[in-house]
Amino acid sequence: MNNSAVSLEDLGWSPAHFALPHLDANQCLSRVTVEHRGGYELAGPEGVFEAVLDGLLRESATNPTDYPAVGDWVIHSMDPVDHHRRGIQAVLPRKSRILRKAPGAAPIPQVVAANVDVLGVVISADQSLDLQIVERYLVIAEGGGACPVVIVNKSDLGGAASTRDQLMQRGISCPIAVISAKNGEGLSEISRLFGAGDTLAVTGPSGVGKSTLVNRLLGEESLATGSVTQDGSGRHTTIRRELLVVDHGVVIDTPGLREVQIWDSMGLEKVFYEISAASRNCKFADCTHRGEPGCSVLSEVDGGQIDINRLSSYLSLWEEISILEREIDEYQRSQRRRRDGKRT
Ligand SMILES: Nc1nc2c(ncn2[C@@H]2O[C@H](COP(=O)(O)OP(=O)(O)OP(=O)(O)O)[C@@H](O)[C@H]2O)c(=O)[nH]1
Ligand SMILES: [Mg+2]
Question: CATH homologous superfamily of domain 272-343?
Answer without folding.
Answer: Probable gtpase engc; domain 3 (1.10.40.50)
